[in-house]
Design goal:
This protein is 22% helix and 29% strand. By secondary structure, it is of the alpha+beta class. The mean pLDDT is 95.
Length: 250
């Protein structure tokens, strides 16, 4: 009888074309599934908790899949880390109930966006932050972040998703339980937790908060933009390199 396994993954997304399989392109799902096949001898497509975009990183992405091989979960983790590229690590592996699914079973996710505010960005951080040393009104950005908490239609902050159309993804209404900016040394960091996120939603929120910080928008404009359901009313998409998938709750 097949066993259902759950993997927790960390990765540097800089050199990958996101999570989702794409023909001829290096993606996290492609490489992980190929590696699972090499270890188990089975054809496996690992299902992720969600699709991170090209260049986006993860501290704790979750994947699930069924296998027939009797290999213990911990041994599978060790074997995978022996053959995966150094930019992808399996940090946890466990057998789970048959009805567990990395995406469908997820209750909430937390994303983090890191902006480096110092004049010179250290080379060892350059791949993992958005460097913005220019003036920003950080208190105004903090105030604007609070306004997206709760249940809203986030159409104004959603990019067109070419794969959208499935019934379970037809609504753009999401519930945000936490939305806040914090100063962490030279970094100004946005963390947001919600029951789901639309395509480019976090990066579009950050791009809009940056317009507030620059004085182009007022914090109160966030409520107006939400009500508009118009992508053109919100700010630009912030660069992918500053975004991290931090946690998935089940």
């Amino acid at each position: 009888m097949p066993r259902n396994l759950k993997l927790t993954l960390a990765y540097d997304g800089t050199d990958f074309h996101g999570w989702q399989m794409q023909p001829g392109l290096p993606t996290i799902q492609n490489i992980l599934s190929e590696s699972l096949g090499r270890v188990t001898g089975e054809k496996i497509v690992a299902q992720g908790s969600g699709r991170t975009d090209a260049g986006v990183h993860a501290l704790a992405q979750v994947a699930s899949f069924a296998i027939n091989a009797p290999i213990p979960a911990r041994n599978l983790m060790i074997a995978l880390n022996d053959i995966l590229p150094a930019a992808i690590r399996v940090t946890g592996a466990e057998e789970v109930a048959a009805d567990f699914h990395a995406r469908h079973s997820a209750r909430s996710k937390t994303y983090r966006y890191r902006i480096f505010r110092g004049e010179v960005c250290p080379p060892h951080l350059a791949r993992y932050v958005y460097h913005h040393p220019y003036p920003l009104d950080e208190p105004r950005m903090k105030a604007s972040a609070e306004l997206v908490g709760g249940e809203h239609d986030f159409t104004a902050f959603a990019a067109v998703d070419p794969e959208k159309g499935k019934k379970e993804e037809s609504s753009n209404i999401r519930t945000i339980s936490r939305s806040e900016w914090q100063r962490c040394g030279d970094e100004f960091v946005y963390e947001v937790e919600g029951n789901g996120f639309l395509h480019h939603m976090v990066r579009n929120l950050v791009g809009t908060f940056l317009l507030v910080g620059k004085g182009s928008l007022a914090p109160s404009d966030l409520s107006r933009i939400l009500r508009s359901k118009n992508r053109a009313a919100a700010g630009p998409t912030s660069p992918a390199g500053g975004l991290w998938l931090v946690n998935v709750q089940y």
